[in-house]
Amino acid sequence: MQLKPQDFLVALKLIAWGDQRWTYARLAQELGLSASEAHGAVKRGLLAGLLLHNHPASDDSQALAAQEPQAIYRVAAKLVRRAAAAENGAGADNPVRPHPHNLAEFALYGAKYAFPAVQLPLAVGVPTSHSAPAFAGVFAPGGTDFVWPHPNGAVRGVGVEPLHPSVPYAAMQDAKLYDMLALFDALRVGKARERGMAQERLPSLIDPAVPKPVKKALRG
User: Fold this and answer.
1) pLDDT tens for residues 164-201?
2) What distance in Å separates the CA atoms of residue 7 and residue 14, rounded to the nearest whole number?
3) How are beta strands 51-53 and 146-149 bridged, if at all?
4) Cα separation of 61 and 162, whole Å?
5) Average pLDDT over residues 7-14
6) Confidence category of residue 73, pLDDT binned at 50, 70, 90
7) Residues 6 or more apart from 160 whose CB is under 8 A from it?
8) How far apart are alpha carbons 127 and 130 in whole angstroms?
9) Proportion of the chain above pLDDT 70, given as a percent
10) HEC states along the chain?
11) HSE (side-chain half, CA atoms, 13 Å) at 81
12) Is 104 exposed, middle or buried (0-12, 13-18, 19+ CB in 10 A)?
């Protein structure tokens, strides 16, 4: 099994959604994928450990029912349902959920090698890497801009082949997803300062519990 770019894109989209309820039809529509592509991406994400199955509380309830008297079971099952609802919120109804720790680790240390950047000629498009809103106010203007070539873009710069052809469309629908994709591009094409900022910000967007990296003096 080999991960495809849309598998990483789907996992990031689920991070962006948080506890929102979603369907495969909505997932496909917002990412510009077909329904079969969305299903396939989820299956591969599960196999790779980037996603996890959501186990309904009924599974635990059935186990209790086999072991306990009926009266105790009714009380215990209610507690299980309440605990599951408190832990997962609305997202408990979803078939899968992201594995934030694994996904943050993959985004930081593996994805740029699995999906290397390809620079393209100058083009008009959607800003990415340090040119995107995720870096607004961080670096002084005047440097080279990077863009995903797109007819609805408004910035001219060095073209960067997006992670997946649907990325510009998907990013324009979801600000958090856009931030994560732009930060990922900074890891792929940025200089030392941009990469350092991305190494700090991207994991914290994916997994707020991840320890912050030790800051080092950056050059370039």
Assistant:
1) 999 999 999 999 999 999 999 999 999 999 999 999 99
2) 11
3) unpaired
4) 45
5) 99
6) very low
7) 117, 118, 119, 120, 128, 129, 146, 147, 148, 185, 188, 189
8) 8
9) 76
10) CCCCHHHHHHHHHHHHHCCCCCCHHHHHHHHCCCHHHHHHHHHHHHHHCCEEECCCHHHHHHHHHHHCCHHHHHHHHHHHHHHHHHHHHHHHHCCEEECHHHHHHHHHHCHHHHCCCCEEEEEEEEEEHHHCHHHCCCCCCCCCCEEEECCCCCEEEEEECCCCCCHHHHHHHCHHHHHHHHHHHHHHHCCHHHHHHHHHHHHHHHCCCCCCCCCCCCCC
11) 9
12) buried
Pairwise CA distance, residues 131 & 109, whole Å: 22
Both tokens assigned to 194: 């941009």
d(CA 71, CA 51): 36
CA 38 to CA 28: how far, in whole Å? 6
**Per-residue pLDDT for 144 more than 90?**
no
For residue 115 the two structure tokens come to 């999906």
Side chain identity, residue 20: Q
| pLDDT at residue 184 in the model | 98
- Pick from 148, 156, 146: nearest CA to 124: 156
pLDDT at 50 > cutoff 60: yes
Encoded amino acid at 160, one letter: V
Predicted local confidence at residue 138, as pLDDT: 80
